[in-house]
From TrEMBL:
GO terms for cellular component: endoplasmic reticulum; plasma membrane. InterPro entries: Auxin_Efflux_Carrier, Mem_transp_PIN-like. The chain crosses the membrane at residues 12-30, 42-63, 69-91, 103-122. This is Auxin efflux carrier component. It holds the Pfam family Mem_trans. Belongs to the auxin efflux carrier (TC 2.A.69.1) family. It is a multi-pass membrane protein. It is found in: Membrane. Keywords: Auxin signaling pathway, Membrane, Transmembrane, Transmembrane helix, Transport. Its main location: membrane. One of its GO terms (molecular function) is auxin efflux transmembrane transporter activity.
Amino acid sequence: MPTIIKGSISILSDAGLGMAMFSLGLFMALQPKIISCGKSVATFAMAVRFLTGPAVIAATSIAVGLRGVLLHVAIVQQAALPQGIVPFVFAKEYNCHPQILSTAVIFGMLVALPITILYYVLLGI
């Protein structure tokens, strides 16, 4: 691939994440409340993210044959990784509950570190 095309694609791909983060910030700034979807929906979204997600990863990892430390690492990685920004972009584009996803992304980033430490302690890694 020619260098100029490769460089142009690299610039566009690097700008995509920044624009998505800017879009999320702008969307949150325009909301009348920080938790625009309601406290119960936000709590449910966080519970699904940090409880159901690791449970599904644990079940599938055990089914695949992971045991011991590898199983624990898989669970912690799933719990530690923050929610992606791309689902918010699609939710906003297609007007499919962007309030819920924006709240989940922002609070997921804030809660990810304490939850990760909790999983480390519980799993004894």
